[in-house]
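Why do we care about 3D structure at all? Because function follows from shape, and shape follows, mostly, from sequence. That is the central idea of this module. The next example makes it concrete: a single protein chain, its amino acid sequence, and then its structure expressed as tokens.
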Amino acid sequence: MAISAKERKLSRLGSCKGSPGAGGGGLGSPAARGHRAAAAAGPQRRLFAALFAFLCAGVVVLGGVHVIGASFRPVLRTAWPSATLNAISFDAEAHQAGAATDTVLPSVQIRHAVALPDQILLILKDGSVLPTPDRFKCLYSPANSSVLRRPPLSAVSLPDGPSLVHCPAGPSDVAVSLSLSLSPPVAPLQWDRLVYTALIDSRDNSTVVFAKGMNLRPGRLGVASRYECVFGRDLSKPKHVLTSPVISAAQEVFRCVTPVRIRQYLRMTTGTNSKGDSDENPMLVSIRTKGRGSSTLPSIAQPEPLPRYNRHRKQKAHSMCVCTMLRNQARFLREWIIYHSHIGVQRWFIYDNNSDDDIEQVLNSMDPLRYNVTRYLWPWMKSQEAGFAHCALRARESCEWVGFIDVDEFLHFPGNQTLEDVLQNYSNRPQIGELRTSCHSFGPSGRTKIPKKGVTTGYTCRLAAPERHKSIVRPDLLNPSLINVVHHFHLKERVRYVNIGQGVMLINHYKYQVWEVFKDKFSGRVATYVADWQDEENVGSRDRAPGLGTKPVEPEDWPRRFCEVYDTGLKDFVQKMFTDPDTGHLPW
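And the structure:
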């Protein structure tokens, strides 16, 4: 008889529950259960015994290694070069050594990196407050290699601008970051092909763009129609940018129309006391060539509005200001500022071109209520003319006249007139936009050491004829192109310059000082269109020391050079006006 499926299933379940026997329930007798438990415990005891034996053997082996460790030292051989191992080892040791001092600061964020000839410049976001350079490291991330750590060359923070960190030049094609920053490594841009800063001029709704890489000729206007300005957060996406025509192009300065949408954006951001720097992708501006093969320069330039133009202002805050660009001139800065303050200069714009001396300490030691000095970080190499154009725009709203002179140049009035007299003579003549004054170049004057009382009293022998002249300009009357060469600006149409007689005003230029000072000129020059002293180019130029050549080797007769006329005019004036009658000391 056939058996149903349900009955077969029940039969299988019953056979799994145990053999039938007395007592039922399918669990079997107690003896049977004990036998099965003993059978199950046997493998467990064997597993425990094996585990115990393994642990004992481990103790013996470890003890043996410890005992023979002094005599047995295994040698590992690798195919990696020893230099690579040393670098990795050094990096690990440096990381362990720096772990105690490196503190991550979330506020420190890297905005841009620029590769200069001998270093890498890191530009941080506004609000990044840096500790002293000995508290962090520059990190280099080469491809397929370990991170390299090097101490920074310098770090500078100013209250009204971004902080800068100067890192040593690293390997090629390397990204850079900081040990105290959460910012990812940044690949540096090249300094000689870059839009590096920009200003918004509300007077004519234009944007003034400062750029390297277009190689325009000095002192001449370029063809503006060959270029256009490009605005956007990501300049690599043509559909997401705004373009505008270039009005003028000269040297490193391009002026273009500011698009309406950009003006609206800037009004919104400046209205909230923000530069838009908190954005991850800020608004940038660049220069693009037009036509076949057009290209856009890399840019880090965020358009910065100039002070608003006040059409109703009757008088500016300062009648006389001075703009200069310097590098490592701190030891002369105090004398230069105090002297010019006494003769009538009211405001100073100092463009610091990568100084690593005591300039910050010198400026902090001066009373800000007496000396209105602004230090502006200008790290761009070979860009003095662009820096002067930038300064002329920034000084325009507050300064009636601006002098463009160096820290080793001192205005001198050998007659009875003062600086105020000279300026008043021309302030009511709107067709005069520039006052040119001759420069007399002074030599070492027999000295071999830096004069303790300053340059104005220490050097008294000069060349007989003036070498060139410098300018005091009215920034309102400069040509919109802002062309300037050797401290002279192009002026607006129908505006002219005048030459001031040497008996009224001149400049003492302490150009050829003792060798200890003069040799620093070989480290590089800030002017764009003059060769560095070590370059084999224009060796006979007046911009060089005649007969010196290109090597920083002191000639035997250096203390006696450039001495044709003894001139103590400014020395006598300084001793009379500045000497403390009780101590005989000068204020610097």
